[in-house]
Amino acid sequence: MSPSQASTDDFSRLTGSRNFDVWKTRVTTSLDGKHLLGFVTKKDYNGVSEDEEDEDSSGSSEMSDVEASPKPATAAGYDSQTVAYEPSSDDDDPASEEGAKSGPATKPPSPIRPFTQRKSRRRVENEMPVPPSSRRLRRMEAQTKAFLMKTMDDTPIRLAKNLTSAYDIFQAICKKYEGAAFLGDPYFIQHFLMETKYEEGSDVNEFFLVLEDAMRATSKATESVLTDGQKSLYLFHSTPASWKDDLRIWKGNRKYIPYDELKMSIEDKVRKMEAQTRYSLAKGTPESRHTKDERALVAPSHSTP
Question: Compositional bias of type Polar residues: which residue ranges (predicted)?
Answer without folding.
Answer: 1-18
